[in-house]
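Q: I'm teaching a short session on how sequence maps to structure, and I want students to see two examples side by side rather than one. Could you give me a first protein with its sequence written out and its structure tokens following it? Keep the formatting plain so it prints cleanly on a handout.
A: Of course. Example one:
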Amino acid sequence: MPRKNLPPHIPYNKSLLEKSRELRNQLTPPERQFWNALREMPSYKSHPFNRQKPLGEYIVDFYCHEYRLVVEIDGDTHGTEEAQVKDQRRTDFLESQGLRVIRFTNRDVVHNIEGVMESLENLLNEIEEEAP
């Protein structure tokens, strides 16, 4: 996607800025592993991602504005029914803003980073193909 055709930015709660800065400085080991692998992808330089990006009332793990893509790395706490309901609410909001959301578990990242990055690359290629 050419930069001049970027979609508008999504408004966010400014009170989340400090928390997002803290989270950027305290990545979990799987988030750090994913971030390092992400930065090695050939498409990263032309389509960068942000870490711990405020969007609406949420802070997403990774976000690429040009691809309108959110990547979430879910830890063990996301397995409870309550957490799944919250995650769905969050996903519904993000999708209502025209974003795609892809989720990986900590386990996926730690034990299969190559598969995670391949899935992401396939999705990015799909998004590229859909672009006008």
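Q: Perfect. Now a second example for contrast.
A: Example two:
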Amino acid sequence: MRNVLLIPFFTVTALAQLPPEVPAWAQPGSPGHPQLAPPPDFHRPSKNFNTPIGLFEGQSDIGGPLVPGSATFDAGTQQYTINSAGYNVWYTRDEFRFLWKKMSGDLSLASDVS
């Protein structure tokens, strides 16, 4: 079921229900898809979520990827799973999911990545 807001003479569909608009140069199978730089002025803002997960205070989708990232935490195994999709980091922008916690002072971080 789609969420629809009715306004006299207009029908506005909730933005969350609309599929994202993907530029032609970013479509899989496009001639330049593997290594085509975006237009110089292309930018989507990052989105921050103050949603705690495990020991992290929040999450962010850096660079506003078209496919939102997600993260889960298994308290039993102390394991985080981060799902992310975004544009290739070789050019002028990055897109990825990021978990964060504000800290200050001297600290050390270790992780096993697989």
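Q: What should students look for in example two?
A: Point them to this: The radius of gyration is 18 Å. Also worth mentioning: The first strand starts at residue 4 and ends at 7.
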